[in-house]
Design goal:
The protein has three domains: 2-66; 74-190, Tetratricopeptide repeat domain (Serine Threonine Protein Phosphatase 5, Tetratricopeptide repeat, Alpha Horseshoe), CATH 1.25.40.10; 257-324, Alpha Horseshoe (Serine Threonine Protein Phosphatase 5, Tetratricopeptide repeat), CATH 1.25.40.10. 75% of the residues lie in helices and 0% in strands. It has helices at residues 2-18, 26-46, 49-66, 74-91, 95-108, 113-125, 129-142, 147-159, 163-176, 182-190, 209-221, 225-238, 243-255, 259-272, 277-289, 293-306, 311-322. The termini are far apart.
Length: 324
């Protein structure tokens, strides 16, 4: 009970006073509310006046915490909401929608660090390293102590074959967040060779998902799709249902004209995310390349129903219909 009480007090303070952890702070708040109701009910039932007085005092303290001044103004709170919506679309691989929400957050937060960093991740996912780096640098200018931004700049440097620059950013990230593990892992893996071996393995043991994923993107950017395929497969052995890795593996198969394998991967993505318009589009494009135009048309129609404002889906459907 004491540990529960302490954790909930900390969660309430973090959420309402510091404005950190976004909506995660509501979870301990809800737990605290439920525990408080149960506690008061038990006290009243046993008629323990002293415990009731302590409970009332604790309730008053919580109310004071709720009404303390917050450091986040209305625009900052709206920006948090917009960024969270963008993150939702990002993990659905709907990068256009994610970018739209991130830019809305950036507009009302005066190009805040988190919004700039999030926009950078969209361009990184699109393998547009120049634009990604530009937004990461803008994020770093807004907050020079953001370990997340520093790690992203390190990954960009690594993909550009600039290990010294990557090490510089990783070391800064470790200084900014000395109790984290991501920077330490990145530094530890920096000197380890990562190239597929002749047995179909990766040539390295105990590497993280992010390491394999980053190197897979790097190989894909260099047109080395067979090696990229191996790296995505290695990443998926660690996180088997990661949608971004699965989608990119499908693209690697497409680039090698392994259309059957690509279709299988995109079908797997649809099973994991059945309302994902981008996944329907990807599978439709693969089936079209396999000559299954009717099936592709059906899938593009489903994609448009899910995202009626997506102009690219409409262009793809119109083009496919003209080929019949």
């Amino acid at each position: 009970m004491i540990l529960l009480l302490a954790s909930n007090i900390l969660g309430v303070i973090l959420f309402f006073v510091l404005g950190r952890f976004k909506l995660l702070g509501t979870l301990p708040l809800l737990i605290a509310s439920g525990a408080g109701v149960a506690l008061i009910r038990d006290i009243i039932r046993r008629r323990e006046l002293m415990r009731l007085a302590w409970a009332a005092a604790f309730g008053l303290i919580c109310l004071l915490v709720l009404f303390l001044p917050r450091p986040l103004d209305r625009n900052a709170k709206d920006a948090l909401v917009y960024n969270n919506v963008g993150i939702y679309y990002y993990f659905k691989n709907d990068y256009d929608s994610a970018e739209k929400w991130y830019r809305m957050a950036a507009q009302i937060s005066n190009n805040g660090s988190e919004s700039m960093n999030n926009i950078g991740t969209v361009f990184y996912a699109r393998n547009n390293l120049d634009s990604a780096a530009s937004y990461f640098h803008r994020a770093l200018a807004a907050d020079t102590t953001s370990d997340k931004t520093l790690l992203n700049l390190g990954r960009i440097s690594l993909m550009r074959d600039q290990p010294d620059s990557a090490r510089y950013y990783y070391q800064r990230a470790r200084t900014a967040a000395p109790f984290g593990t991501s920077a330490d892992e990145a530094l530890a893996e920096l000197d380890q060779p990562l190239s597929p071996d002749t047995t179909g393995g990766t040539g390295i043991a105990n590497a993280s998902f992010q390491t394999f994923y980053d190197r897979a993107q790097r190989f894909a950017g260099q047109g080395r799709f067979s090696e990229s395929e191996d790296m995505y497969l290695a990443a998926l052995r660690i996180k088997k249902d990661d949608i971004a890795a699965l989608n990119n593996l499908g693209f690697a198969y497409q680039a090698q004209k392994k259309f059957a394998e690509a279709a299988e991967i995109f079908e797997r993505v649809l099973r994991l995310s059945p309302d994902n318009g981008v996944a329907y589009n990807n599978l439709a494009g693969t089936l079209y390349q396999m000559g299954k135009i009717d099936s592709a048309i059906v899938l593009w129609e489903k994609a448009i129903k899910l995202e009626p404002s997506n102009a690219q889906f409409k262009k793809n459907l119109e083009f496919a219909r003209k080929q019949k």
